[in-house]
Amino acid sequence: MRRSAAPGGLSAATTVAPWRDRWSLWRDRLLASPRFRQWAAGFPLTRWVAHRRAQSLFDLVAGFVYSQVLLACVQLRLFDHLADGPLTVSALQPRLGLDAAATLRLLQAAQALQLVEARHGGRWGLGPLGAVMAGDRAISAMVEHHGALYADLADPVALLRGQARDSHLAAFWPYATTSAPGQLGDADVGAYSELMSASQPLVAEQVLDAVDLRRFACLMDVGGGQGRFLIEAGRRAPSLALRLLDLPAVVERAQRQPEWQALGARASVHGADFLRQPLPGGADIVSLVRVVHDHDDEAAQALLRAVHAALPPEGRLLLAEPMADTPGAARMGDAYFGFYLLAMRSGRPRSAAQLAAMLQAAGFQAPHEHATRQPLQTRVLMALKPVANVPGARA
Ligand SMILES: C[S@@+](CC[C@H](N)C(=O)[O-])C[C@H]1O[C@@H](n2cnc3c(N)ncnc32)[C@H](O)[C@@H]1O
Where would I find the O-methyltransferase C-terminal domain in this sequence (predicted)? Predict the structure, then answer.
């Protein structure tokens, strides 16, 4: 990135101009006044803003309930039942295992959230959001796994104070807190590896539409899970050699997959703990896909340095993950990932500028951002390892 980069740590707070402070103070006093709010809700020029703001606030208050309605739909497989066409309450009720009143209550709640829709003849069909859910197993898997997150968020203040005792998410992602991730076994890594594999195709599509890998000879995907990203990269760049690096138990799972086996001699695996063992050389491009945000600053910086050491001069690092400063996705970055990673007890969301500063501190040139179609889901930075003392090449 060619704009100025903030440092990776806590000092990277946004600078706010003094006039904005004064304006915000005036606005906050106004909005706190019940008389002003009543006036604004009735006055024709401010009515729509007042209604929209009230709706946003209510959505914050009720967000957990909406999520639980969605969880009930997923657990009862409502979207699967409706995928072949609309059904009446009496046809649905035995499939859901609910009585008629509960079925109707769920359908009405789901309709309010655009998950289902009432159709002609007393039948119910998929709504615009339910249709997306029905076509995407990865979102359902994510919704079910959120049970662990919500259990951890039951006392958010204890979480912030570091006083929460158990962490369901830390148990789900055991590499985040153990001091010996290389010792984890198949039973420890299976659940998260499957969840990552289910959602990886969407991420791979975004990343590989943004970056053409055909000019490279060998791609090493560090923290590459069960190899889904490499499998798609290999499909798009048929002469690219593929190397998967992840924990020993994870690469063993990858090797058992028929799509991985079908890659034959062009694919290899390397089971290692990337925080405690050096990375092997030989690749001219290394990818870190949804990996850096899992780690606290010190570990993340050490990982970037290790990638730099493993690359030849003019080698590239491809870093892909959701980022904190994404326009239109601020909630996803600092609110969702901020608290998710707090509950997981490792890592934090970082802005593109913070990542750029960390990449430069690791020895890379300022990265270049490759635009993706859905930056909310993932953004892509490409960083060049310069030939020593020859600045100026672009990533
Ligand atoms: C959030 S997952 C992302 C997986 C994959 N890149 C994707 O996007 O689907 C993080 C991956 O990093 C791996 N990982 C975490 N810590 C590691 C370590 N110390 N050494 C090697 N791999 C590690 C995990 O096993 C996991 O597969």
Answer: 150-365
pLDDT digits (tens, 9 = 90+) for 263-303: 999 999 999 999 999 999 999 999 999 999 999 999 999 99
pLDDT band at 5 (very low <50, low <70, confident <90, very high): very low
Instruction: Give percent of the chain with pLDDT exceeding 70.
Output: 95
Instruction: Determine the distance separating the centroid of ligand 1 and the alpha carbon of 392, expressed in angstroms.
Output: 32
pTM of full prediction above 0.80: yes
**What pLDDT digit, counting tens, does each position of 78-121 carry?**
999 999 999 999 999 999 999 999 999 999 999 999 999 999 99
Give the closest residue (by CA) to ligand 1 atom 24.
223
Q: Convert the pLDDT of each residue in 179-198 to its tens digit.
A: 999 999 999 999 999 999 99
Q: Are 98 and 78 in contact (CB under 8 A)?
A: no
Nearest CA residue ID for atom 11, ligand 1: 223
Cα-to-centroid distance, 253 and ligand 1 (Å): 13
Among 172, 175, 231, name the best residue to mutate to test ligand 1's pocket (greatest count of ligand atoms within 8 A of Cβ).
Answer: 175
For residue 317, report the distance from its CA to the centre of ligand 1, in Å: 16
Give yes or no for a contact between 124 and 93, defined as CB atoms under 8 angstroms apart.
no
Around ligand 1, the residues with Cβ closer than 6 Å are: 175, 181, 189, 196, 200, 203, 223-225, 229, 246-247, 250, 273-275, 289-291, 294
In the chain, the domains with their CATH numbers are 46-134 (1.10.10.10), 168-384 (3.40.50.150)
